[in-house]
Amino acid sequence: MFSYSFHWNQAFKALPQMLDGALVTLQVAILSMVIGLAVALALTLFRLSGNRILSGFATGWVEIARNTPALFQIYMAHFGLGNFGIHLSPYTALLVGIAFNNAGYLAENFRGALKAIPETQTRAGRSLGMTSLQAFRYIVLPQMLRVAFLPATNQMVWAILMTSLGVTVGMNTDLAGITQELNARSFRTFEFFALAAVIYYVIAKIVTLAARLAAARMFRY
Amino acid sequence: MKKTSVLAFGLVAATALTSPAKADKLDDIISSGTLRCAVVLDFPPMGARDENNNPIGFDVDYCNDLAKALGVTAEIVETPFPERIPALMSGRVDVGVASTSDTLERAKTVGMTIPYFAFQMAVTANDKSGVKSFEDMKGKTVGATAGTFEAIALEKSVKEWGVGEFRPYQTQADVFLALSQGQIDATVSTSTVAQSNVKSGKFAGISVVGNAPYDIDYVALFTNREEYGLINYLNLFINQQVRTGRYNELYEKWVGGEVPALSVNGVYR
User: Fold this and answer.
1) What is the domain count for chain A?
2) Which of A8, A183, A187 to mutate to probe the B interface, most B CBs <10 Å?
3) Is pLDDT above 60 for B142?
4) Count of CB contacts below 8 A, A vs B?
5) For A151-167, how does the pLDDT look when each residue is reduced to its tens digit (9 = 90+)?
6) Does B175 lie in the same domain as B229?
């Protein structure tokens, strides 16, 4: 039933353009990850703080970020806030949407990692005269980051793939946006989409491998 | 004797086996009794949904007319703009009645008929943007529906101007939502869509401010490139729609005003 002749040469002509898009994709993903990590760390501290308002805020964030679709979060960042006169450009909206999602998932990662560190270590630290902040900073935090590192690379891959949702808010410079445009112009849907899929795969694979290598170096005993 | 009968049987079997393969798409449609049309239902007045969620619009009526001419029942398959071609290629639809601009680039991929409708391009602006004409759009943030004729033309204009920003949205509704929120200052769309959205009252604070100096956007029906039999039939059907006055009738029903000519001066199609 599938009647289509592939014209790969047409698609390969657009490869440089798509690779430029891939760079934007990677840039958004990295930025969203940096912001996400910082926010997730803050959310984790909020939840540990024992302050009901702060921990309630953190729990709310995590609940919404993890239990609603990323598409919805990005759409809301653009059209939802737009309704209240806050206008984020497609790039910013996409970045905010993914960073929001990342922060929620990473905060849960951190929570899981914290559970893996026996409480006795904190007590040992405190009995050596450390303040609770010092005990957290010097004993718990480094171990937490180590445990959470590989799960966090998962989120990084997920962030790369989520950038493709930017097309719904008018993003046209990332890989998905450029692919859509090339497709609209020529109707060579399958070549462009296949090429984009391969590029996404390669980026994701490189990121995973790089993370493995980095982990092997950083976490040597 | 025995040999001949085996040979005869073989011939009959071979004919029986090969003849269905010779049936083209037109045959398939007639024998299946259903014509499946790709229609964009986010593009009033060409395609939309009524209060009961039934598909309505010029393209929907056009598909029904085509099905009637073929003596089959019409099935409207909703396809957003970017999904028209995948729907055709994967065999989910037979014909696209989807306001598809007949560019040469696209005709390399799908088979286009003669034009069945023609659009004039209009500029719609947010009232607060200060955009009063097409020229005022220079340097502003503008947008259009991704993958449409006007989006391609507008993006080119923005590149030529060298200032301002172009944003493609996935649906016409998103463009007008962004426009009424002030996320974009102006858009270029077909005048029919512009009028229909401004009149709908769903989007506050926007008005049509003038025409865009783009070529008339002739749109064609499309099907698989190699289906000459069907394309031939579709061409005749479009011709008959105009000849019988049905085209004018449908235009009056859905759009109103001066009916655009479908022929180009000084050249054969």
Assistant:
1) 1
2) A187
3) yes
4) 88
5) 999 999 999 999 999 99
6) no
